[in-house]
């Protein structure tokens, strides 16, 4: 359990998250994920990184219980950990392909929004329930998946969208039966990994360089409002209702 790295095929590094029951990561888990992705990207033998998860869903965001118990220190740690993990995916020296099943929520959106490609199972759903959990953030990454007004509606309502809907918007490469998720992801990763290793790294740097939005700076800006909500007591009030009947 935790974060592991393997090499299923030549030129491909598979980074897998397995944190039962729902892959909601504690602070240490976000930093471990960041280290794994950066380490895989630095390996000169690797030409593509696949980011995957075990269990019912891809990622359920941060560990809310850790935030409730840890106070300001836990919030700062979660902010820094998420920032590190999202940045590691974006800055990975080679393309990152995300394999998404089940729920992809909160921090999961930060990961897939910064990935270079997404392959999703038919049961995958994507969303930011931040306003229901006393937090803000990752609108930066949701905006990379859907048009501006849809992003805002999803953000303000905490609703989710299906893999099929994201495929229609062009942000998901393929939608496949859950049993075929790993093979479909490896097929795309293998096609990328067949490219020249030095050239694919130059291509990744070039593509990042022409992005119209600096995702690191814009996400850091959002995080400031998360901390402000905490300082004002708003976050604790909302999180105190989290998981209770009717909420």
From TrEMBL:
<comment type="similarity">
    <text>Belongs to the enoyl-CoA hydratase/isomerase family.</text>
</comment>
<dbReference type="Pfam" id="PF00378">
    <property type="entry name" value="ECH_1"/>
</dbReference>
<dbReference type="InterPro" id="IPR029045">
    <property type="entry name" value="ClpP/crotonase-like_dom_sf"/>
</dbReference>
<keyword id="KW-0456">Lyase</keyword>
<protein>
    <submittedName>
        <fullName>Enoyl-CoA hydratase family protein</fullName>
    </submittedName>
</protein>
<keyword id="KW-0443">Lipid metabolism</keyword>
<dbReference type="InterPro" id="IPR001753">
    <property type="entry name" value="Enoyl-CoA_hydra/iso"/>
</dbReference>
């Amino acid at each position: 359990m935790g974060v592991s790295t393997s090499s299923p095929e030549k030129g491909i590094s598979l980074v897998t998250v397995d944190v039962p029951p729902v892959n909601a990561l504690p602070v240490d888990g976000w930093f471990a994920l960041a280290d794994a992705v950066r380490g895989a990207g630095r390996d000169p033998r690797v030409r593509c990184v696949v980011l995957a998860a075990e269990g019912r869903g891809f990622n359920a965001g941060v560990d809310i219980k850790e935030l409730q118990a840890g106070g300001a220190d836990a919030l700062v740690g979660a902010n820094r950990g998420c920032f590190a993990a999202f940045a590691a995916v974006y800055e990975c020296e080679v393309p990152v392909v995300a394999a998404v099943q089940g729920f992809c929520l909160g921090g999961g959106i930060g990961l897939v929004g910064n990935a270079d490609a997404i392959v999703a199972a038919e049961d995958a759903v994507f969303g930011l329930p931040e306003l229901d959990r006393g937090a803000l953030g990752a609108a930066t990454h949701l905006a990379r998946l859907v048009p501006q007004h849809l992003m805002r509606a999803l953000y303000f309502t905490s609703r989710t969208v299906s893999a099929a809907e994201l495929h229609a918007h062009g942000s998901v490469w393929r939608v496949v039966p859950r049993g075929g998720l790993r093979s479909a992801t490896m097929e795309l990763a293998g096609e990328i990994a067949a490219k020249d290793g030095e050239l694919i790294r130059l291509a990744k740097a070039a593509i990042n360089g022409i992005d119209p939005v600096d995702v690191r700076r814009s996400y850091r800006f959002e995080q400031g409002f998360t901390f402000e909500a905490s300082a004002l007591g708003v976050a604790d009030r909302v999180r105190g209702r989290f998981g209770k009947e009717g909420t």
